Amino acid sequence: MNTDIWNEICDLLSESLPTDINERRFQEFVVQALRLLEWRKSLGDIECQRPIPTGSASRMEPDIIVKSNYKDLFVIELKLPNTPIISRNQQQLFSYMRQLKLEYGMLIGQGIHIFYEGPLSNQNDPILVESIKFERNNPKGEKFVDLFCKDSFNQEALKEYTLEAINIHNRKKQMKVLYERILSNDFRRTIPNLIKQEFINEFDGELIDSVLEGLEIEIREKDLNPTSTLITDNETKTFARSQNTFKTTFTGSSSSLNTEKRTVDGKKIGQFVQDSFRISYEKGLISANEIKNLQNKTYCKTEFGQSIEVLRHSSKGTRDETGHNRFYAKEIFCGGYWLNSQWNESHWEKLLTWLRKIQK
Fold first, then answer.
1. What is the pLDDT of residues 255-265, one digit of tens each?
2. By C-alpha distance, which of 351, 357, 175 is closest to 264?
3. How many Cβ atoms from other residues are within 10 Å of residue 321's Cβ?
């Protein structure tokens, strides 16, 4: 039965919506969807645009408040389905939740986004418990029907649902931290010593060092798997989409690792930078706003640790005030710019972090 109800909601709030629908009409459709969940405006379960005083001369009007026996249960903020949800919409919902002292709120537009703020969470802002797309036979949608149908609405069931979401969220955060630490330069440099500790009781230390001198030690990301439980969807949106993985290699003995050149995908940093900018621009990953940022010295200092801009318009020269060439002069990058050529080993981590960021 939950499946049938959810499919009707999908039809109502997605498949049958007029393309030119306005906010007032969309609200009527959402009220009809709530009716499928047994909430009835005629019985006082649904209140639209209730004025809430927020000061001597100001007030707010939530789109929809759902209640039972005159007690407010959750608040809904609406956003037209053809308009992306932005941070301001979330903050508006959060204001309603706090003003009404409600633990649960929803943003409904292109899907249903459920937020929670209360003692189960230790965050400053409400946390996103679940995002549900309007797709038929969606198990998340069926669960939504079970939790938010009037006849089965239960605070304890919601609490269990929320705790499960919080635990998953916290685990993903911990995994991300561990993942980044294992891939960090600091950890990579400890690997020869870890190997030496493993075999020191069985082999002579100098023998182990001699063997390590002939080995290539590598930690790299596996080929990306969309069903992997290790990394979330957003966390896998790295430059690896175009090259499968950042493959990082250090060559040398344990005593010389700190001075060895690092390579990623078999390339030293200069070649990698040029290929990265070339491919990223071709794939539309470097926006016009980002190109503007990359010409700002303060931004480039913070983002990359560079003392000069990363991009300089080709109408300007490639040399600095002392006459030294600071940009690659054989190729124009990003549709009309010289690319900074002053890259060294200290820039690797910030560069890779930036590449991951522009994928999000």
1. 434 445 688 87
2. 351
3. 5
Neighbouring CB atoms inside 10 A of 292's CB total: 11
**128 DSSP β-pair partners:** 115
Q: Domain count of the chain? A: 3
Which of 239, 266, 293 is the last residue in one of the domains? 266
Q: Which of 3-7, 14-18, 86-90 has the lowest mean pLDDT?
A: 86-90
Residue 231 has pLDDT above 70, yes or no: no
Number of CB atoms found within 10 A of residue 212's CB: 20
Domain that holds residue 311: 268-360
Q: How far apart are CA 196 and CA 180, in angstroms?
A: 24
- Provide the 3-class DSSP secondary structure of residue 57: coil
Sign of CA dihedral 152, 153, 155, 160: positive
Residue pLDDT, tens place only, 166-213: 998 888 889 889 988 888 888 888 888 899 889 988 888 889 888 888
Mean pLDDT of 70-79: 94
| Same domain, yes or no: 208 and 148 | no
Residue 292 has pLDDT above 80, yes or no: yes
pTM score, whole prediction: 0.56
What CATH number is attached to the domain comprising 57?
A: 3.90.1570
Confidence category of residue 345, pLDDT binned at 50, 70, 90: confident
Q: Indicate the helix (H) or strand (E) that contains 80.
A: none
Do 27 and 64 form a contact (C-beta atoms < 8 A)?
yes
Residue 147 has pLDDT above 60, yes or no: yes
> Which positions ≥6 away from 171 have C-beta within 8 Å?
none
Q: Are residues 57 and 103 in the same domain?
A: yes
Contact in structure between 136 and 128 (CB atoms under 8 Å): no
Q: Which of 237, 266, 295 corresponds to the end of one domain?
A: 266
Mind giving me the DSSP string for 92-123? HHHHHHHHHT-SEEEEESSEEEEEE-STT---
